[in-house]
């Protein structure tokens, strides 16, 4: 279930915009000119991607084939990567490479002994071209197993420039300014925010941005690892801050009840659809794809974003998600699989998908000119520019029973909090109880 937030959403919402950008350093994106050293070999890759995401990743695999001579085969796993890959390993049909969508799943694979450490060449590239935080999230017990190829920027607030202009407000710099701007938008006839409360994962993202900014990265890391209890005063404070928004009927389209009946695509529709009900919607960079593909909005003109603002004197948060490439020990062609990872680590590979749209790379060496439009360039610059202050989506680091299951754990408890935000302390206690059970299991 968890994976719907950054993959199936982006697959139906890819930023398929203009295709005119060039690769790093200019010139064609083609990966030709290799020595065809892998001719006659096939690399099997498994991942959750489908639709336009699978199609765009295939372009990357085709570029690898053109460079090395290897054939590739992509297998779409659906949401439950862990179960599908486990059954393939047991059946003697393990893929060579898996694109892993959660830190928790990567750790699970490593602890089961399924993964090969990255080759020295790939490790060297990661060390040189990525912020250390991406190496941390790809490592288990000090060994680097995962290469983060695709990232999501989950600290972006999307807005209708017309709605803000009509209200006479500018993109805010702080959370309090955002709520104040929201009231001004509301006074002009639209609700401030469309909140996708029907999808519990969106509420975890709201909480994570507030918590990271307000409590700081050290406490964020401790809470993500459950080394800090959810009953900590910092959690109660973040819930109180979030509750201030949730209980304000001027700010939330349809009020709490309306939000609980709004899924993610509908929240984007309420801002960018034919009958706007709100001026702003918070979610990741993939909002742009829905606005463009489903509602024909010109990104940067009819739909734009501002960074999730700083909360309570903290720094502006940068929360990310991402897909890490790993090589399975039991793959029939793990050696060629590692060559694919070495290729995916290059800006050349990232440029192929960046040009197609619907993609962000954490690779610092990827020329921003490779991206298809100015907004994609801006989100990529923000993600890479955040360096080591980026934090991976907290619920994606948690056991699925707590951080990634519909109708249970954090998703359900934050939906309950949206329904009635009057008791942040009580909600924190319930979150701690659910987390303790999940981490123990």
Folded structure, characterized:
The protein has 441 residues and is of the alpha/beta class. The chain folds into two domains: 2-153 and 320-392, D-Maltodextrin-Binding Protein, domain 2 (3-Layer(aba) Sandwich); 162-317 and 405-440, Periplasmic binding protein-like II (D-Maltodextrin-Binding Protein, domain 2, 3-Layer(aba) Sandwich), CATH 3.40.190.10. 47% of the residues lie in helices and 13% in strands. It contains 21 helices and 13 strands. The protein has helices spanning 8-11, 51-68, 81-90, 103-111, 120-129, 132-137, 161-167, 175-187, 200-215, 217-224, 233-246, 255-260, 264-272, 287-293, 334-344, 347-356, 374-385, 394-397, 400-403, 409-419, 424-440, and strands at residues 42-47, 71-76, 97-100, 115-116, 139-140, 143-144, 147-153, 156-159, 191-193, 278-282, 304-307, 319-328, 391-392. The strands form three sheets. Strands 1, 2, 3, 4, 7, 12 and 13 form a seven-stranded mixed beta sheet that branches. Strand 1 (42-47), helix 2 and strand 2 form a beta-alpha-beta unit. Helix 2 packs antiparallel against helix 16 (347-356), helix 9 (200-215) crosses helix 20 and helix 11 packs across helix 21. The longest helix has 18 residues, at 51-68. The radius of gyration is 21 Å and the shape is globular. The relative contact order is 0.19. The model is unreliable at 1-33 (pLDDT under 50).
């Amino acid at each position: 279930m968890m994976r719907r937030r950054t993959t199936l959403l982006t697959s139906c919402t890819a930023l398929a915009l203009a295709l005119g950008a060039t690769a790093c350093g200019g010139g064609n994106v083609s990966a030709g000119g290799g020595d065809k050293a892998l001719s006659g070999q096939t690399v099997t890759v498994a991942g959750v991607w489908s639709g336009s995401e699978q199609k765009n990743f295939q372009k990357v695999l085709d570029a690898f084939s053109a460079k090395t001579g290897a054939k590739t085969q992509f297998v779409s796993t659906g949401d439950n990567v862990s179960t599908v890959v486990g059954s393939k390993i047991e059946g003697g049909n393990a893929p060579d490479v898996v694109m892993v969508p959660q830190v928790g799943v990567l750790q699970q694979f490593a602890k089961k002994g399924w993964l090969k450490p990255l080759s020295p060449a790939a490790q060297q590239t990661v060390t040189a071209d990525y912020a250390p935080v991406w190496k941390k999230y790809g490592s288990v017990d000090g060994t680097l197993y995962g290469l983060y190829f695709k990232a999501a920027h989950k600290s972006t607030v999307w807005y209708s420039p017309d709605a803000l202009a009509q209200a006479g407000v500018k993109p805010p710099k702080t959370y309090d300014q955002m709520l104040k701007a929201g009231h001004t938008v509301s006074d002009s006839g639209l609700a401030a925010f469309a909140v996708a409360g029907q999808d519990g994962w969106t509420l975890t993202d709201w909480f994570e941005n507030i918590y990271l900014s307000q409590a700081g990265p050290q406490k964020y890391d401790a809470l993500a690892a459950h080394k800090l209890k959810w009953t900590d005063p910092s959690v109660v404070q973040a819930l109180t801050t979030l509750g201030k928004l949730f209980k304000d009927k001027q700010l939330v389209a349809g009020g709490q009840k309306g939000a609980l009946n709004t899924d993610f695509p509908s929240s984007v529709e309420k801002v960018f659809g034919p009958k706007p009900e709100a001026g702003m919607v918070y979610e990741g960079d993939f909002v742009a794809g829905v606005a463009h593909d489903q509602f024909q909005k010109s990104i940067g003109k009819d739909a734009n974003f501002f960074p999730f603002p700083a909360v309570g004197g903290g720094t502006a948060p940068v929360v990310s998600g991402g897909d890490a490439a790993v090589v399975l020990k039991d793959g029939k062609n793990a050696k060629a699989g590692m060559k694919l990872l070495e290729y995916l680590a290059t800006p050349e590979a990232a440029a192929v998908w960046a040009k197609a749209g619907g993609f962000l790379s954490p690779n610092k060496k990827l020329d921003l000119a490779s991206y298809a439009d100015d907004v994609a360039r801006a989100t990529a610059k923000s993600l890479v520019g955040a360096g080591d202050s980026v934090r991976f989506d907290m619920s994606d680091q948690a056991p699925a029973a707590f951080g990634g299951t519909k109708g249970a754990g954090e998703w359900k408890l934050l939906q309950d909090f949206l329904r009635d935000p009057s008791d942040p302390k009580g909600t924190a206690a319930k979150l701690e109880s659910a987390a303790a059970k999940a981490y123990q299991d």
